[in-house]
Amino acid sequence: MDNPENDLKTLWQDQPTEPTAMSLEKIQQRAHQLQVRIHREKLIVYGISAVAIPLYLFAVIISPDRLATAGYLLTLLGILFVLYVNHRHVQPNRQAVARASTACADFHRRALAQRRDLLRNVWLWAVAPVMPGAILMFIHMHRLMASLPPYTSVMFGLHPSGFAAVMDTIGLLALFKIVISSHWRAYRLNRELKALDGI
Amino acid sequence: MTATTGQDQRYIEAAAEFGPALERLARGYEAHPERRRDLVQDIHVALWRSFRSFDARCSVRTWVYRVAHNTATTHILKERRRHDRHWTSLDDALPSETASAEETTHHHQALDRLTRLIQHLKPQDRQIILLYLEGLDAAGMAEITGLTAAHIATKIHRIKALLRRQFTEGDHHG
pTM score, two decimals? Predict the structure, then answer.
């Protein structure tokens, strides 16, 4: 190639392309499908909540133990908060406008920053809201288990309180892993962002 | 003319003018044919949607390329989360496989190599090389990407060096 840059430009621009046969009807249909998919995802979350919320509410009303009642109530408030955050995050129309009005470098930077913040704050918006209620319920559960006769066994010869402690530890380790891996991914995105800012 | 027909009309005109360029752009972002077809369709949907708020503060060309590159960038960032892919910068991109003189003179292979090279670049470098190959000038590229003209000039210089390394040194080595 004598002049590779110009030859490559010509080569690139002259490559055969398949015509994207998308009629307006098809585009509108696909846009509608996208909207339906987002609504369906939201509906699944709302459906689960529609079952969980009355159950917790019922538990709040009938529970004779104050500690358990407080635990159920706080968990219920936590679920409502997580729902609110989830509802606010999914706004497809705003995204469509942002894609057109934002220059590519800023858009890329924003996409990375948004993802980084989401990962960094996973503890705050998904775990922390339900933690106070969960802790109270754990305490209540342990008290209940401890009150059982000493030779009661649920699994592997463990007393219910010991079994509950093992389950708590597994749950805490799983939470710890989620938070640590989210922070690690956020750290990597932050490095990428710093490299972009340095340009 | 109602708002909806204005949006449709603008889209039809833009798709007719930039359709092939959008196809080529998608090739630079996605190697898998089915996912690429999906990406092209996503770009068209995003474009149609975006024209509802087109305010003529920039040219249609700038608008179209911004929507297309931003949609494609979102696509590759999502793909990276799924497959943990790594990208290289213009400076770090090494000549892929050593090509023989016969290979590089064959347009098809040269185009394949060029496409593979683009697909491994970081999003920003990918945007610039694609706009460069589409024949846009530095000012047009700066408006679309939001980078300064000086920065674009530096990048173009590196792109030219990279292309020379990839396509002329390969000839000599072969």
Answer: 0.76
